[in-house]
Amino acid sequence: MLELLRARLGPGLAVEPVHAAAEATGLESGAFDLVLFADAAQWVDPERAGSEAARLLAPAGAVAIVETAFAATPFMRGLAELLARANPKARSRPPGAARQILTLAGAGAAVEEERFLQDAELDAEALAALLASLSYAGAALGPAGLAALAGEARALAARCGGARFTRLLTLRHARRRPGARRPRRA
Fold first, then answer.
1. In the structure, what pLDDT confidence band is assigned to residue 10 with cuts at 50, 70 and 90?
2. Which domains does the chain have, with CATH numbers?
């Protein structure tokens, strides 16, 4: 995925993809204006990841978390069931993880929230590409498992009158105040 990201970066973007755990990146302290967790709160230890994000952020840096939720449509409910059946190890988001990360990294700054709706009609090729892009599907299932899942998803789409990928994206973000101290643990 890092190579794909590098290939897609536009000219002039100062982005250096790094393969590291969110809880211990090894990157320079206080050197970043933004730390972003994109649909990742369920995969990290919130306390350790929040502390690491706090360490990475510049004094007026911002931390942002994007979380997603499938819409309550017949196709999306069916897709969620297929995904859960295909990979029972996929994690659900622990309650409060995003807030915990934001509180630790944002040093008590006010958290703002924005919501967006993603709604796209998918043909068979786009549906297969979407499934392959999901870490708990494409990377986790291997080629044979992914092919089987894609076949089931195409059959689901036929029963539902088409594949319409609809989900709610919630962006929560906080900008640190210079000089603010992060909250201490009790």
1. confident
2. 30-175 (3.40.50.150)
